[in-house]
Structures are given as structure tokens and as C-alpha cells.
Amino acid sequence: MELDSIEDAIAAIAAGELVIVVDDTDRENEGDLIMAASKATPEKMAFMIRHTSGIICVPMTAERADVLNLPPMVANNLDPMRTAFTVSVDYKIGMTTGISAEERANTARALANDNCNGGDFLRPGHIFPLIARAG
Q1: First to last CA, the chain
Q2: pTM for the whole thing?
Q3: Structure confidence at residue 102 as a pLDDT band (50, 70, 90)
Q4: Number of folded domains that form the chain
Q5: What share of the chain is helix, strand, coil (3-state, %, to 5)?
Q6: Is the model's pLDDT at 44 over the cut of 90?
Q7: What is the CATH number of the domain that holds 64?
């Protein structure tokens, strides 16, 4: 399988496109469908939901999670990969159930918006923030 360069993937993400990022065979040996949260649209979110497991995650720095008051999902993380899920959230503004592609896209964009703070989100919700690790 021929893969695109990292530079091409970064450019595609910056342009609002969806890309598949594959990990190593000694990790999960899978591909993740990703896009820039700030460019999430209902159409792209619906595609992600329909063609993946349906679990939508939004990675962020630990500092951003602190600003948004997003504590770890569990106190004692026993996941072998130590995936750092926080509590799940929905964006309050315009929210009905939080499950629609439109509302999940709104939540993803709000998580990426530096003008939003922890009070802008309901917990639990339908989007799963992840605290990114360096490296």
C-alpha cells in the first residue's frame, strides 16, 4: 500500500479534508479517520460516524483540557495503551440531544475554539476529548 507523505496529510487536514492515519502493527494496527475539529461540518461528521465505529474523539493538549475543565474519564486508567479519555461532552448552544452529526460537529468546533470555556459544555455528552501525549 502506498501512503501519502506526512506533509501532504497535514496540508489536507489544514484544508478541511478527511484523512486516514494508520498506526504501527505493534500498536492497534488500525487507521483513524481524522479532520481538523475547527473545520468539522455536519456532512463530514456524518461520514465519519457512518464509516467508522461512530465514536468521535477530539484530541487536545493537557492545558486545553484544563481550560475546559475536562478531568480524566476514570481515576485509574487500566487501558493497555493508557488512552487518556476525558469526560465526554456536548456543546450547550443549539443542543437538543447532542447525537446528531450537526451537533457533534458543533461540539468538535467548540472544543477547538479558544473563545469557549468549560461552562460552554454539558457532561456527559457524545464527543470524547482525548489528552494528547507528546511524541
Answers
A1: 25
A2: 0.91
A3: very high
A4: 1
A5: 30, 20, 45
A6: yes
A7: 3.90.870.10
Return the closest-CA partner of residue 77 out of 130, 31, 38: 130
Considering only the C-alpha atoms of the chain, give the largest distance between any 2 of them, rounded to a whole number of Å: 45
Helices (H) and strands (E) in the chain, counts: 4, 5
What pLDDT, on the 0 to 100 scale, is given for residue 135? 72
What's the rounded mean pLDDT across residues 92-105? 95
Taking CA atoms, 85 is separated from 18, 80, 92, in Å, by: 22, 13, 20
CA torsion 36-118-75-60 (nearest 10°) is: 20
Evaluate whether residue 1 is within a structural domain.
Answer: no
> Does some domain include residue 24?
yes
- Domain span at residue 33 reads 6-131
Residues 103, 96 contacting (CB under 8 angstroms): yes
